[in-house]
Write a structure and sequence with these properties.
With 551 residues, this protein is of the alpha/beta class. It contains 17 helices and 26 strands. It is globular, with a radius of gyration of 23 Å. Bound molecules: adenosine monophosphate.
Length: 551
């Protein structure tokens, strides 16, 4: 009955027309690049013309392999507004995952950052990349690389006309795509329709969500390949907020400088980012007076981080979400009747994953599917549903069988809910490892380790780590006569061939046997409990244990 479907286009239209001079700023290798929403809108239409010229039409997918910057942001509206799908690819993944993802998504055009071009060329495989008809480097010249046909962004978009008639799209038109590697096995594609992205934007805009306003200066440190930087660039555009993109692999010094220079009011990232900034602040004088809040998600926000930011006058907004949820599901805002509560009570609530955002529903169930009480004690699996929660993966019937129950998504997170409705994650149903906000598949590492002739059994578990939250440690059973030192070296060399540095276990522990469940499977829960508190990390975690890369 409404006059228009729920699509992203009106958000851009509003920013262009109501806030034409509001800035979009990016840190680049050549310094700070400034543009406005008026110019930005034109660029998105130039991009649409260029893509159309390259043969992209409604329903096609366009891949990006990029950090956070304005050109990447141009694809955020330029691609979905023309009816195509913007598919952000995580460049930190192992090569074989990247190949799988490109092949599965059948991207027709692939944008790549100059600093990531070599990484992409390393993962390039003619067969897996067969769908890609054009590679575009997001720089002024195309480097000499064995991926083709290759052009540069300036040549691709430069001479295109700045006018383009956006088509009238329906709510269910696919608009975005992102892969999750959360569980074991191959990454799973999640597709976002126009109305999923629209409704997610509307919810996080509200004060009950993240409360973004036109006076805000928003800097997403969370990479744009992580579920569209948690959807923040869409919300900031809808609000008419200034946006600041921190560019490739921002160091704490870059983040601090951008906050100071651009008057950032709200930023967002995984805990590792903020631990790094807090450490930097110990020795550096940084003016954080404009910064009102930092959104922390992707992994649990440590209470100490919430307290330290509090002391600096910055509110931590703890949020939880999933790729399958576009991604925001809960925000640990204080309820109206807790705003005068003792500090300890407030801290306890802010340390939880929070309250479900407006528009979603949840339930917590035990193994039999019985709903559990909200008493802060009973724990079970969290199920969620709502307009921006997917109900299926892209062409993964087996995962669709296990991960959904009708309209409900099984999150795999084991939680309690307190009397006030605050959800707290206490465990995960599966054994995946999240290091610095990025997934490491324990099962893949185990399979690789067990392929060695001298290994009888191996289990890889995540052990707590102050900076990266978790790091992998391999627990290995061998026959008695095996030279363990030599074996460790061989395993390290073998894994290095296949996986990025940040996937490699920081410890190799030799044990007599791996505890088993009643059905004979490895019980990593028992293993984790058995070795809890022991110092299993032999190696120092690599500097780039994620999300940074050595480019
Ligand atoms: P992803 O799909 O990569 O966004 O990962 C989603 C998963 O990350 C969730 O199911 C949680 O296990 C974990 N996660 C996300 N946010 C938080 C948080 N604030 N606290 C604890 N775990 C989180």
């Amino acid at each position: 009955m409404g006059g228009h479907d729920q699509t992203l286009e009106p958000f851009l239209w509003r920013a262009e027309n109501i806030y034409p001079d509001r800035e979009v700023v990016a840190r680049t290798h050549e310094g700070t690049r400034r543009t406005t929403y008026a110019e930005y809108g034109e660029r998105t239409r130039q991009l649409a013309n260029a893509l159309e010229g390259a043969g992209v039409s409604e329903g096609d997918r366009v891949g990006t392999f990029c950090w956070n910057h304005t050109r990447h942001f141009e694809t955020y509206f330029g691609v979905p507004n023309m009816g195509a799908q913007v598919h952000t690819i995580n460049p930190l993944l192992p090569d074989k995952h990247i190949q799988y993802i490109v092949e599965d998504a059948e991207d027709r055009v692939l944008f790549v950052d100059p600093s990531l071009a070599e990484k992409l060329a390393g993962a390039y495989d003619r067969e897996a990349f067969a769908s890609v008809e054009q590679f575009v480097v997001m720089g002024s010249d195309a480097p000499d690389l064995p991926i083709e046909p290759l052009t540069d962004y300036g040549s691709f978009v430069g001479d295109q006309p700045p006018s383009y008639e956006w088509p009238s799209l329906s709510s269910d038109q696919p608009a975005g795509m992102c892969y999750t590697s959360g569980t074991t096995g191959k990454p799973k594609g999640v597709e976002y329709s126009q109305d999923m992205m629209w409704s997610h934007t509307m919810s996080i805009l509200t004060p009950q969500g993240l409360g973004i306003e036109d006076s805000d200066v928003l800097m997403p440190v969370v990479p744009m390949f992580h579920v569209n930087a948690w959807g923040l660039p869409f919300a900031a555009t809808a609000a008419g907020a200034k946006q600041v993109f921190p560019g490739p692999v921002p160091e704490p010094a870059d983040i601090a400088r951008l906050i100071e220079e651009e008057d950032v009011t709200i930023s967002a990232g995984v805990p590792t980012v903020w631990l790094g900034l807090l450490e930097y602040l110990e020795d550096h004088d940084v003016d954080l007076s404009t910064l009102q809040s930092v959104v922390i998600g992707g992994a649990a926000a440590p209470k100490a981080v919430i307290e330290q930011f509090d002391d600096l006058g910055v509110e931590v907004v703890h949020a939880w979400g999933m790729t399958e949820m576009s991604p925001v599901g809960t925000v640990a805002n204080l309820k109206y009747d807790l705003r005068d509560a003792p500090y300890e009570t407030q801290l306890e609530k802010q340390g939880k994953q929070g309250l479900i955002v407006p528009g979603l529903e949840f339930k917590v169930v035990d193994d039999d599917g019985t709903e559990l009480a909200w008493d802060g004690e009973e724990f079970g699996e969290l199920l969620v549903r709502g307009p921006w929660v997917t109900t299926e993966y892209h062409e993964r019937p087996e995962a669709n069988e296990t991960d959904f129950e009708g309209s409900w998504l099984r999150t795999g997170d084991i939680v309690t809910v307190d009397e006030d409705g605050y959800i707290e994650i206490v465990d995960r149903a599966d054994d995946v490892i999240k290091s610095g906000g990025e997934w490491i598949s324990s099962q893949e590492l185990e399979n690789a380790i067990m392929a060695h002739d001298d290994v009888t059994e191996a289990a890889v578990i995540g052990v707590p780590h102050e900076r990266w939250q978790e790091r992998p440690v391999a627990m290995i059973v061998t026959p008695e006569d095996v030279d363990r030192e030599a074996l460790t070296g061989e395993l390290q060399a073998m894994l290095k061939e296949e996986y990025p540095k940040w996937w490699l276990p920081d410890g190799f522990e030799f044990i007599d046997e791996i505890p088993k469940t009643a059905t004979g499977k490895f019980s990593k829960k028992d293993l984790r409990e058995q070795y809890a508190g022991q110092d299993l990390l032999e190696e120092d975690a690599p500097e780039e244990a994620a999300p940074a890369e050595d480019d």
